[in-house]
Amino acid sequence: MAEGLGIEPRITESKSVVIPFNYPPTIFFIKYCMNILDILYTPLDVPPQPKYQIKDLRNWLTENYGPLARYKNVFSGSRIAAERTVENYPWDLTVAYFNMTDTGPGWLNGFDKKFPELSKYMYEAFGLPLEEVGLIIFLPMREKHKGLGFWHNDTDIAGLRLFLEIEDLEKNKLYIRRMKVPYDIRPNIPLPMDEKKYLQDEVFECKILSSTQCHFLNNIRAAHATYTEDLGTNRIAAFVTCKMDNQKKFFDLVKPLILQSAEKYKDHIITWEPEVAPPEGFEPS
């Protein structure tokens, strides 16, 4: 299990840590031939984030982490269990918008009033109407966390992610690994994840283009983990996902954006490929 190591993945442990992509696919291949499920990571081609005070966002998240904890129960039995059981868990999950079953309450504790432009951006940037959104949740890094987090595949298949802040891109990374099997439906893998059973050995570093970028993470054919070099790092991510039992429609809405972005950022995308076993008798030097 990778979590809790407190160190960056080493080549000797993971075979390689690769900045993608050595042989980027052609735009024609991405547009006409590629299965979208084979795109494991791509930056997203969206407008820049609006201006706001990041200090105010940090304060809102700190103040509401405890009072809004009950809204994380939607992850009961899956990701919220990890917060209680996984060693070196990275985040203080805080929900800002909740409407999983069309019964509200919607924006929580005045987030949309405090950050009117940012709240709109968090769904409009992806071309989504608010009525299709079920959950917007922030993942500020815990002050006492450093090192490698834990390998996991989130429960949403659309994989829409934002960075709101990364203090130092050289010291804060996002890693991804291919699943051994090219699943068509997200596998519900217990945590801690059995890496030898589910994951290929090779570890890829996702190319983060800016500290406020939006990106797509594949939770069907890949697992990912964070890495933070120092304690007390200011790093805030967020994800936007759909209502209960509406994942396919939601994913269909954002597929054009993912494909368009993969074309634009073809030098940085990571794709699924089968694991190639070394020739019989091969011994690394």
Report what the structure shows.
The two termini are 26 Å apart. This protein has one domain. A hairpin with a 7-residue loop joins strand 3 and strand 4. The chain has 285 residues and is α+β, with helices and mostly antiparallel strands. The radius of gyration is 18 Å and the shape is globular. It has 8 helices and 13 strands. An 8-stranded antiparallel beta sheet has the order 4-3-5-12-7-10-2-13, with helices on one face. The protein has a 5-stranded mixed beta sheet with strand order 1-9-8-11-6, with no helix packed on it. 22% of the residues lie in helices and 22% in strands. It has helices at residues 11-14, 27-32, 54-64, 79-85, 111-114, 116-124, 195-198, 247-264, and strands at 17-18, 39-43, 94-98, 106-107, 133-140, 147-148, 160-166, 172-178, 203-205, 214-217, 222-228, 235-242, 270-271.
Write the layout of secondary structure elements.
Layout: H1 11-14, E1 17-18, H2 27-32, E2 39-43, H3 54-64, H4 79-85, E3 94-98, E4 106-107, H5 111-114, H6 116-124, E5 133-140, E6 147-148, E7 160-166, E8 172-178, H7 195-198, E9 203-205, E10 214-217, E11 222-228, E12 235-242, H8 247-264, E13 270-271
Strand order in the largest sheet: 4-3-5-12-7-10-2-13
Number of strands: 13
Strand content: 15-25%
CA-CA gap between termini: 26 Å
Mean pLDDT over the residues: 86
Low-confidence runs (pLDDT<50, min 5 residues)? 1-22
Indicate the percent of residues in helices: 10-25%
Structural category is alpha+beta
| Number of structural domains | 1
The helix-strand sequence is HEHEHHEEHHEEEEHEEEEHE
How many helical stretches?
8
- Say what oligomer this is: single chain
Radius of gyration: 18 Å
What overall form do the CA principal axes indicate? globular
